[in-house]
Amino acid sequence: MTTAVNRFYNSIENAANQSQSALVELFIYFLTVESGQDAATPKQVADCFAACDLVVPGNVGARLSEGLKSKPAKYIKANGGYKLQRHMREALSRKLGAETVTAQTSATLRGLEHKLPAGANKEFLKEAIDCFELGANRAAIVMAWILAMDHLFAYILAHKLSDFNAALGKDKGVKIDSVAQRDDFTEIKETKFIELCRAAGIISNDVRKILDQKLGTRNSCAHPSGVTVNKSKVIDFIEDLVDNVILKFSV
């Protein structure tokens, strides 16, 4: 959440001059609108302050309770937490400027695109970001995952093939015992592929955790479901894969 909430905070005009009460309202907006939560707890709001290196109010719960009684009320109770009354949500949306936020998040992703050298990977990432800008968030996530996997396949074939095949040969749960070309990787399930990359020492445990988490997100996006895929999730997904996989493992 740290990266996403900092990006949100940086998008707020005159953020440094906002009162703590105003920031509580804005962080509720971030948690329930930008991040898609049903409700936000006082602890989650406090965590937003901490993640942005801001002084955490000592009475977040009390501020939220007071907001229930104000006229008009700022918040309503929901699902064990709080969310914004409609008028507050719409007012904050206007204050933040939905178009401005979209432009800023798009610029963040375009910045990642420019980090890649010219070639097929850059063009593929460009199309994934095009999907994001058109509101096709699920498509953007699926394409970014395909790009990261394809990049790892190329990296292994170029630099770590013997290490990968050594780990693969010891695993009796895979139909093949070695790979020689890119198509061979399609015989290995993605969860197993990540596991083998770790066993072969190709990726660190931190990168393994990132890939496992992103695979879960990709799976949620690859078929019809009730899961909400918001802008901040797409940004984090693509940023993580570009910075920690595509740029980290040079082919």
Structural account:
The chain is mostly helical. The protein contains eleven helices and two strands, in the order ααααββααααααα. It folds into two domains: 95 residues, Arc Repressor Mutant, subunit A (Orthogonal Bundle); 148 residues, no CATH class. Helix content is 65%, strand content 3%. It starts with a helix and ends in a 5-residue tail after the last helix. The model has no long low-confidence stretch (mean pLDDT 90).
Q: Which class of secondary structure composition applies to the elements?
A: mainly alpha
Order of helices and strands: HHHHEEHHHHHHH
C-alpha Rg, in Å? 21 Å
The domain count comes to: 2
Unreliable segments of 5+ consecutive residues: none
Q: Keywords, please?
A:
251 residues; two-stranded antiparallel ribbon; mainly alpha; single chain; 2 domains; 65% helix; Arc Repressor Mutant, subunit A
Task: Offer a quick outline of the entry.
This protein is mainly α. It has 11 helices and 2 strands; from the N terminus they run H-H-H-H-E-E-H-H-H-H-H-H-H.
